[in-house]
Amino acid sequence: MHAVLEHVVVQISKEVRGLDADVAQQHPGGRTHEWNAQQVVEHLILTYRATSGLLESRLRKGRSSQHQNRTWLQRLLQVMILGCGRLPQGVPTLDENRPSPGEFAAMDGEQLGSALCAEMQWMDALLERCRHRFGTERVGNHPWLGPLRVDQWRRFHVVHGLHHVEQLRSILAQVAPEPVPIRITSGTLRKKLPIPVQRPLA
Description:
Blueprint (H helix, E strand, L loop, with lengths): L2 H14 L4 H4 L12 H25 L10 H12 L25 H26 L5 E3 L3 E3 L1 H26 L10 H7 L10
Antiparallel strand pairs: 1-2
């Protein structure tokens, strides 16, 4: 797997590692319209599958994307997302990349990380095949960004993945907060522990 994509998978896997399946299904604040941790990972898996399907189509046809031109909006979004590493706020998720109830079985953190890694590895293998076959030509059209080269596809998935790392952290802070560390002082020990009175030496 390419190093930049591996970095994203490692980051996301660290965030969900140790989650049990029940916590992974909990919605922040009980608000079911907001994604839980598993749904965030499902969304990423679906975006990888969508890209893989597009790349497989290009490889079957044996040619790069016929649509090489970009609109001014696509150029602007490429500068914002690929150049500056920022996703625009308020853009709705494409239906094909939206998690659907029951599409995936409930998974714990380890299973989520493994599923994510497997999808990323397959997508990256296809990207590498496209790079060898088509070189620096644009190999497929992103719905927002237009036609992208292999390196641009990787860059998009890095920016998109890191965006969802922040979302995961926000979700987990609400459903699986870190325990508050216990502060131990001599005063609290006297209050909390039944320390016997010291007996005088004989």
